[in-house]
Design a protein that fits this description.
Length: 324
């Protein structure tokens, strides 16, 4: 794989196809000649710092904002011209969603439910707001509002779900429920576009992530691909107490011969093994096969998507695949 080129998934049909999307506010360019593809059945994450253009791009996809230039097709339709045909096929939960203060939870659900809607009671129970059915919108906490918008996004069995800051304001139990719902959507073949700052969430949920900066794509691929391209190696540290110099030297030789190992070093009693992520399994198997007990100070420093994004955002050169 050439790391200078973004990877794309070509299985399935393009649910979202964007070419040359641009959007400015005065002299500020928010989205800059953006190309984007999302394929049927994928869970795709848009990641990047605040101001990267993620939310503006998503609003253009839904026809909520008109781009200055570019071609957009969502489920084969133009969001600007075909809004009435497109809207019933998309479920969305946006950062700045709102409802009238006096509207009760159940009234909102009934208002948004179409003729083929999922069972509202089941959804409300799944997201922990069934007991708030008679509560007006103004009386909900921030997390409860977020859960209500998720119910509304999924209510009408959409083909495409767009989620902006999916679990913002949710407690750990609610986060688990929401993530389980996204997994269920994947299994049912629904396409999900997720905009998030929660990179552990993106790493766990997304088939592919697209990193953005200044309205352009920096790189894209599976979370593992971005981690491999833009972070350092995994490091496993441990000591082998009670071993003499000859035994330790033999151990170092054996570790150096393991697959995926790039380097083995020793500082005092601590051994450090560096390599690709797969090195963790090989070192673990080597330790487990030894007659001695597995070291109690075993520590693994594993590169993650957050480290990859920070590396990308700190680059000063052009985004991957960009032309001058």
């Amino acid at each position: 794989m050439n790391p200078s080129q973004p990877t794309t998934t070509t299985t399935g049909d393009a649910v979202i196809s964007v070419r040359g999307l641009s959007k400015s506010y005065g002299a500020t360019v928010v989205v800059d000649d953006l190309d984007l593809d999302v394929f049927a059945g994928e869970v795709v994450g848009l990641i990047g710092a605040n101001g990267a253009g993620k939310t503006t791009a998503v609003e253009c996809l839904q026809g909520l904002r008109r781009p200055d230039a570019g071609r957009i097709r969502v489920l084969g339709l133009d969001p600007a011209r075909d809004a009435q045909r497109l809207r019933p096929q998309i479920g969305s939960q946006l950062q700045d969603s709102g409802l009238p203060d006096r509207m009760r939870v159940r009234e909102a659900v009934d208002l948004f439910a179409g003729p083929d809607a999922a069972d509202p009671e089941t959804l409300m129970e799944q997201f922990g707001i069934a007991h708030r059915a008679r509560t007006p919108f103004a009386g909900l906490s921030g997390g409860e509002r977020q859960r209500l918008f998720l119910v509304l996004a999924l209510l009408n069995r959409p083909r495409l779900v767009i989620l902006d800051e999916l679990t913002q304001g949710l407690d750990p139990a609610a986060r688990r429920g929401v993530r389980a719902a996204v997994d269920q959507l994947r299994r049912s073949g629904v396409t999900v576009l997720l905009v998030t700052h929660e990179l552990a969430e993106a790493e766990a949920l997304c088939d592919r992530v697209i990193a953005m900066r200044a309205g352009r794509v920096l790189d894209q691929g599976t979370p593992a691909e971005l981690i491999a391209r833009h972070t350092g190696q995994a490091i496993i540290r441990f000591s082998l107490p009670g071993t003499d110099d000859a035994t330790t030297a033999t151990a170092l030789q054996q570790l150096n011969r393991l697959p995926e190992v790039h380097a083995v070093t020793r500082a005092d009693q601590t051994i450090a093994v560096r390599g690709d992520r797969a090195v963790i399994a090989h070192v673990g198997a080597w330790l487990a096969a030894r007659p001695a007990q597995v070291p109690s100070d075993l520590d693994v420093d594993l590169p993650d998507l957050e480290a990859a994004l920070l590396t990308l955002l700190n680059q000063t050169d052009d985004p991957v695949g960009a032309t001058s």
